[in-house]
Predict the 3D structure of the following.
Amino acid sequence: MPSSHSWRLSVAPMMDWTDRHCRYFHRLLSRHALLYTEMVTTGALIHGDVERHLRFNAEEHPVALQLGGSEPADLAHCARLGEQWGYGEINLNCGCPSERVQRGAFGACLMNEPQLVADCVKAMVDVVSIPVTVKHRIGIDKGESYDFVRDFVGTVSEAGCEVFIVHARNAWLKGLSPKENREVPPLRYELVHRLKKEFPHLIICVNGGIKTHEEVALQLHELDGVMIGREAYHNPWSLASWDARFFGDDGAGPAARQTLYPATREQIEASMCDYMARQQREHGTPWSAAARHMLGLRNGLPGARRWRQVWSDHRMRDWAPHAVMEKAHEAAAYSPQVTAAADI
């Protein structure tokens, strides 16, 4: 049985957002949070560029690969690739409600076929030595029966899945956009709590609508873990207090270990500049590919808007990242908010 500590707090897989640059940034903020890739489809790995989809930075650990697919043999093949590339977990997406995913016959619509999901999980469990987990919803469309999600978890767990990450909303497969599916169906955390009571031997984590540290703490009284999505992305500085508050790690340790975990926003930004420069030098990656993920770093501080404007200015694409940082701080210092505060 895997340790529930591994899933205590995680950042959700988010399409177009949680790429390897984003995950490196989040790792600078928290050494313990579990990070997930964007969903990678089996077709992309079987027929596409494996390295492009699976390459990641060693500093990202612990990091998990989320797969999208519904063919057991294909998922087994891709899970094996994930383990070979060094991921510590394979997660099966049974929660995405987008029509594009539905056309591929996977995502949330798989909840209607629990035995197929069990077959997929069994195929992966048989070929890898790392945990195989499932992320899913509490129901499909407007059905409100607890029995539906209970039977899904029961069937899939018999195939060898011991960790379930439950988005506490239904997935409406018709009539709502993916964004609306994250906001319109009501949150029903009590169903996730019931799952934990009925399956105490399983690791049950919750996802959906949780933003504050107080809300995280309340959920951890009932469950094994909490997964945070867009709040972690838009307000990343909140991750900086996760280790001390939820993992009992105050940052003490060997100096060599501390170099990856700066203590201030400015140090985080400077470390990202080092990373961006390295990516440019080694891979030809423009700094904007990584900088876009840290635009929320100064949220709530005076001058944040002007700071973001500089980091978003593609006219500076030929500048060195540290030079962009200097320009961004100059802009922030001369913002009306900052100058007004200085006059008081």
